């Protein structure tokens, strides 16, 4: 029975090392993705914590091991969108007094920050796959072909999704501003 215990501890050490390497190699990418979706540093940290805690509780799947960047990206976007949806359903009581949010680099005025908030809210209304494609294209700068390869779909599917998502976001942003745009 003793050799089995040694083998198990060796397997656990290897899994632990693999998990640590996975975290170190992809932390920055996952954090950047989560921050761009949520627009909030603390929420991005929560997304990472949730994602890696879920991974700790399960075996590292073949999908994760075969394409970790794709798996982590998709998971981070889904968790970040859930965070936004939850925030909309259950708004926090004036967190800004307790800890002011960190403005995004792109927003320089209150009007721009409001636009970013409306855009995040509109993105949360999109299907998860459509939001993923938008983020890959407009946040991470991937081409349609690269997105298609990353998500295992066709370039045409990516192009159609981008077109429809942009149109839906335009309508949503116009509607939230009372049709003034």
Order of helices and strands: HHHHHHHHH
Tally of DSSP helical segments: 9
Can you tell me the residue ranges where pLDDT is under 50 for at least 5 consecutive residues?
Answer: 1-8, 93-107
Overall SS class: mainly alpha
Give the terminus-to-terminus CA distance. 72 Å
Describe this protein with a few key phrases:
mainly alpha; 2 domains; 9 helices
Structural account:
The protein is an all-alpha fold. It folds into 2 domains: 1-89, Rna Polymerase Sigma Factor, Chain: A; 110-181, Winged helix-like DNA-binding domain superfamily/Winged helix DNA-binding domain (Arc Repressor Mutant, subunit A), CATH 1.10.10. It contains 9 helices and no strands. Helix 7 crosses helix 9. The longest helix has 37 residues, at 2-38. The radius of gyration is 19 Å and the shape is globular. Residues 1-8 and 93-107 have low confidence and may be disordered.
Secondary-structure blueprint:
Elements: H1 2-38, H2 41-56, H3 62-66, H4 68-89, H5 95-98, H6 110-125, H7 128-138, H8 144-151, H9 155-176
Précis, in short:
This protein has helices at 2-38, 41-56, 62-66, 68-89, 95-98, 110-125, 128-138, 144-151, 155-176. By secondary structure, it is mostly helical. The chain folds into two domains: 1-89, Rna Polymerase Sigma Factor, Chain: A (Orthogonal Bundle); 110-181, Orthogonal Bundle (Arc Repressor Mutant, subunit A).
């Amino acid at each position: 029975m003793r050799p089995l215990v040694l083998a198990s501890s060796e397997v656990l050490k290897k899994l632990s090392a693999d998990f640590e390497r996975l975290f170190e190699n992809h932390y920055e990418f996952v954090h950047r993705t989560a921050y761009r979706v949520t627009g909030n540093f603390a929420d991005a940290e929560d997304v990472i914590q949730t994602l890696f805690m879920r991974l700790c509780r399960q075996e590292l799947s073949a999908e994760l091991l075969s394409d970790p960047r794709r798996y982590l990206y998709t998971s981070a976007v889904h968790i970040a969108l859930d965070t936004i949806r939850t925030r909309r359903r259950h708004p926090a009581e004036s967190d800004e007094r307790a800890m002011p949010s960190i403005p995004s680099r792109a927003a320089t005025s209150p009007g721009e920050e409001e636009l970013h908030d409306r855009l995040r809210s509109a993105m949360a209304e999109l299907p998860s796959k459509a939001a993923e494609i938008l983020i890959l294209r407009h946040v991470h700068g991937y081409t349609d072909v690269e997105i298609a390869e990353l998500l295992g779909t066709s370039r045409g599917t990516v192009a159609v999704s981008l077109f429809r998502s942009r149109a839906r976001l335009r309508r949503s942003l116009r509607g939230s501003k009372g049709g003034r745009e």
